[in-house]
Amino acid sequence: MAADQGLTHGVSRRLRLAFLLVPPLAWLVVAYLGSLGVLLLSAFWSTDTFTGAVVRSYTSDNIVRVVTDTVFRTATLRTIGIALSVTVICIALAVPLGLYMAKVASPRVRLALVVAVTTPLWASYLVKAYAWRMLLSPEGPLHWVAGYTPGYGLIATVLTLAYLWLPYMVIPVFAAFERVPDPLIDASADLGASDLTTLRTIVAPLVFPGIAAGSIFTFSLSMGDYIAVTIVGGKTQMLGNIIYGQLVTANNQPLAAALSLIPLAAIVLYLLAMRRTGALENV
C-alpha cells in the first residue's frame, strides 16, 4: 500500500513538473522554431519588381543569387573572418584575466574585477558603440594620446566588437578557472612539474570547456551584428548590415531571409565543431 502511494506521488510530481514546462516549451516552439520556419520558407519567395509586394510562390532564385553573387560571398568570408578574429582576441584577453581573477587576486580585488567586467553589460549597446566611434575618430582621444588612429573600417569593427563581447568570454573562463581544484595544481607542482607544464597538461583541459562556451557567444554575436559595423565600419560590409539594407532599404524580404541563412548555418556549424571537441559535455 505504501509502495503504491509512493508510486502515485512520484507520477503526480512528474506530471506537475511536465505541466510547468508547457509554457516555456510552447513559447520556444511558437516564437523561436516558428520564426525560423517562416524565415526558411520566405527565403524561397520573391518580390514583385513593380509593387515591391512579397509573392508567396516557390522560387530558388534568392538561394542561387546568395551562393553565386561575388558581393555576398566576399561579405560572408569577411564576416566569418571578423567573428573569428573577435573570438581570438577575446580568448587572448580573457584567459590571463580569468586566471588572475580566479587564482591570484585577493577576494577584494577579485570582486572589484568581477564588477569591472560585468558593469559594461548594464550600459547601452549604442552608447558603447558610439563611444568607440568617438575614440577612434581622426580627432578623437586616441589620436591625441598616440598620434595615430585606425579610423573607421575593418580594424575599428574588430576592436569594437571585441570590446562589446569580451564580458561574455571572461565570465565563463573565470568560472572555469575557479572550478580547477587548487590541490590538483599543488600536487602537480609537488611532483616536479613546471608552471608551464601544469598549465598545459592540467589546467588547460579543465578550462577549455569554459573557453569553448565563451567562444560560442563571441562568434555568434559577431556573426549577427549589424549595428557596430554601421557605426564604426566605414565602408566595411558585413552580412548583418547587408541583410538590414535588403530588408529596410531595398524592401526585399525574401532575399534578406536567404542571406540570413548564411550566419545561421555558420553558427550551427561552429556549435557542431565545439560539440565534436567534447567541450560542451563538461560546461
Strand and helix map with partners:
Layout lengths: L1 H41 L3 E2 L6 E2 L5 H8 L1 H35 L2 H12 L6 H12 L4 H6 L7 H25 L3 H9 L4 H30 L2 H6 L6 H11 L3 H24 L7
Antiparallel strand pairs: 1-2
Helix pairs in contact: 3-7, 3-9, 7-9, 8-9, 9-12, 11-12
Structure commentary:
By secondary structure, the protein is mostly helical. It has 2 domains: 2-42; 71-282, MetI-like (MetI-like fold). 77% of the residues lie in helices and 1% in strands. It has 12 helices and 2 strands, in the order αββααααααααααα. It has helices at 2-42, 61-68, 70-104, 107-118, 125-136, 141-146, 154-178, 182-190, 195-224, 227-232, 239-249, 253-276, and strands at 46-47, 54-55. The protein has a two-stranded antiparallel sheet with strand order 1-2. Helix 3 (70-104) packs parallel to helix 7 and helix 8 packs antiparallel against helix 9. The longest helix has 41 residues, at 2-42. The model has no long low-confidence stretch (mean pLDDT 89).
